[in-house]
Amino acid sequence: MSHTDNIFKSMKDMQFETTISVECGVTMNDSVESRVIAEVMGEKPGVTVTYMPAMIRIDGEGKMEFKMDEITERLGREMTPHLFEICTSTHYGRMVMVDDNTVVLFGNMDDVQEFI
User: Which of 23, 36, 67, 91 is deepest in the core (most CB within 10 A)?
Assistant: First the structure.
């Protein structure tokens, strides 16, 4: 999906199911850093970026890996997992800081077991 796709639907278009979702995502306040994070993540397969007036949503399925070195390179200054978390106002799925370079967001809770 591309930057112009939108995950939000009208209530009339919603279909409610009793299945377990493996989706994950973050909502970020719109900022220079958040726009760069969204740009980097939007190039990855299976990731949808939705821009709203004051927020940016990044959604994926299964898991999403946020690599700080990729974001740092594009941003032009250092991005750390701690600065990344400041950019995020909320998330869904299980967020794990794997190391100083990688934050992983898991939609499938079975995949996160090795980090618990």
Answer: 36
Could you count the other beta carbons within 10 Å of the beta carbon of residue 116?
A: 7
- Cα–Cα distance list, 65 to 16, 61, 86, 106 (Å): 28, 11, 17, 9
What is the 3 state secondary structure string of the chain? CCCCCCCCCCHHHCCCCCCCCCEEEEEEECCHHHHHHHHHHHCCCCCEEEECCCEEEEEEECEEEEEHHHHHHHHCCCCCHHHHHHHEEEEECEEEEEECCEEEEECCHHHHHHHC
Residue (of 73, 59, 76) closest to 101 by Cα position: 73
pLDDT tens for the chain, residues 1 to 116: 445 555 666 778 777 777 778 899 999 999 999 999 999 999 999 999 999 999 999 999 999 999 999 999 999 999 999 999 999 999 999 999 999 999 999 998 888 888 87
